[in-house]
């Protein structure tokens, strides 16, 4: 049962993390970004450069790079020739010949977590133009050179992901939210069937929940793979031809693997959903495929791109699992278990869920604290960045959920211990104790999906 001691435990852990942040000076790494360029943004050059060198904060795999040059008349030319410079964090692009006037160069990277990072540099090439002269005149001895007026240089160096890609960020957040919703629905039903109240899958709404869960996982994963393919393909390249090269980068391979894992989950659970039972063979397959899905999911967030990825990836998988057990279990209890079993069994199921939820919350708090230290090892970014503020909002909601859960369950257990309420009243009390938590858990899902897209620093 979630008690006041568990609530105090969560508050203590969060307070310890915030306090520890004051004494840690190592700043977590953000998405890769440009730190230098040659030519630099705003440079005026006497002659056209033959190469453009860009230095980044992290190493850059060549298969994740693309670039283009835009001349003053709007002509765009892809930069298809590039090599590493003095280190693997420096990319040297070969520029086309004959550049003159205002020139804008643009780079784009696919980050190790699949996020698109882009930037641009503007400079001027002063091409000289000689006046025509009459032979034998004074002007023929001293030709006049006219310089073109200096055009306006683009002040922006960094480009947001929504500018760098054709798919807007709200669509990406919606896809991630639907994916987390699928995890919650499917995870809650599996927990209910295996640990809370066997037979939950036989309820019509329970079957629909499982079908919706696997459909959301497979559908969102497939669409995310198509979006990533659209991000990395060249403008002149077809989506079909670029699809075959998606495995050439780690983010693309992980997205494709996640899609395959979600399809395998759907195939494995199809017969179980029809029969309304999870046999031993199905449970074994789930034990093998679910971790694969969770690990590939972690690659699409900050677990891979930030510091200590070897720790962040398994911690993120545990964090998502504990969220699915707690929030998914709450939804299953509210809509599937309590309304469809006798009131005495409902109370027993509620007690079993409380015990399981207590363990899940402990894992959720501990893994959340570790992730907070990884992403924000300095206290400043927690309170000054969008990621930090949203993370604080998420933590606040979780702590409030803990407080409500402890209060509701203690009140319910005290009433049932003193005098057993009528079946209808008991069912109503059980429903009320999970309804608010489920609603708040849904908000946590949306915040989690939004946090994935925002750099911590």
TrEMBL record:
Transmembrane segment boundaries: 178-197, 209-228, 248-270, 282-300, 320-339, 360-383, 389-406, 435-454
Organism of derivation: freshwater metagenome
Lipid bilayer topology: Multi-pass membrane protein
Protein name listed in UniProt: Unannotated protein
SUPFAM superfamilies: E set domains
Gene Ontology biological process: copper ion transport; response to copper ion
Localization, UniProt: Cell membrane
UniProt keyword list: Cell membrane, Copper, Membrane, Metal-binding, Signal, Transmembrane, Transmembrane helix
Domain Copper resistance protein D: 348-451
GO molecular function terms attached to this record: copper ion binding
Any Pfam family matching the protein: CopD
DNA repair found in the keyword field: no
Boundaries of every CopC domain copy: 31-125
Keyword Methyltransferase on entry: no
GO CC annotations on file: periplasmic space; plasma membrane
């Amino acid at each position: 049962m979630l008690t006041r001691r568990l609530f105090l435990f969560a508050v203590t852990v969060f307070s310890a993390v915030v306090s520890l942040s004051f004494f840690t000076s190592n700043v977590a790494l953000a998405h890769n970004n440009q730190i230098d360029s040659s030519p630099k943004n705003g440079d005026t050059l006497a002659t056209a450069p033959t190469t453009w060198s860009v230095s980044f904060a992290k190493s850059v795999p060549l298969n994740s790079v693309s670039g283009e040059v835009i001349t003053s008349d709007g002509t765009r030319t892809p930069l298809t020739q590039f090599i590493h410079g003095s280190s693997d964090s420096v990319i040297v692009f070969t520029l086309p010949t004959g550049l003159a006037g205002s020139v804008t160069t643009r780079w784009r990277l696919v980050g190790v977590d699949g996020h698109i990072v882009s930037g641009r540099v503007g400079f001027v090439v002063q091409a000289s133009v000689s006046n025509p002269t009459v032979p034998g005149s004074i002007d023929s001895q001293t030709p006049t050179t006219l310089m073109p007026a200096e055009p306006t240089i683009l002040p922006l160096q960094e480009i947001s992901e929504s500018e760098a890609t054709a798919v807007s960020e709200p669509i990406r957040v919606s896809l991630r939210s639907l994916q987390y919703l699928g995890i919650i629905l499917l995870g809650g039903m599996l927990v209910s069937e295996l640990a809370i109240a066997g037979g939950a899958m036989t309820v019509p709404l329970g079957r629909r929940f499982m079908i919706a869960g696997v459909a959301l996982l497979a559908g969102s994963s497939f669409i995310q793979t198509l979006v990533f393919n659209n991000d990395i393909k060249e403008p002149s390249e077809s989506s079909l031809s670029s699809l075959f090269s998606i495995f050439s980068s780690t983010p693309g391979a992980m997205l494709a693997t996640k899609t395959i894992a979600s399809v395998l989950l759907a195939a494995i659970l199809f017969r179980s959903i029809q029969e309304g039972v999870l046999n031993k063979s199905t449970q074994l397959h789930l034990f093998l495929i679910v971790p694969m899905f969770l690990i590939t999911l972690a690659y699409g967030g900050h677990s891979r791109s930030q510091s200590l990825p070897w720790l962040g990836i398994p911690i993120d998988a545990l964090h998502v699992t504990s969220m699915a057990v707690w929030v998914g279990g709450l939804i299953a209890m509210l809509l599937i278990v309590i309304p469809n079993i006798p009131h005495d069994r409902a109370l027993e199921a509620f007690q079993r869920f409380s015990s399981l939820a207590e363990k899940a919350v402990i894992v959720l708090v501990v893994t959340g604290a570790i992730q907070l230290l990884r992403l924000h090892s300095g206290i400043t970014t927690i309170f000054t960045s969008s990621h930090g503020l949203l993370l604080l909002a998420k933590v606040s909601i979780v702590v409030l959920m803990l407080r409500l859960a402890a209060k509701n369950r203690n009140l319910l257990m005290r009433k049932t211990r003193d005098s057993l309420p009528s079946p209808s009243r008991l069912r109503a009390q059980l429903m009320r104790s999970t309804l608010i938590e489920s609603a708040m858990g849904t908000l946590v899902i949306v915040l989690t999906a939004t946090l994935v897209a925002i750099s911590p620093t």
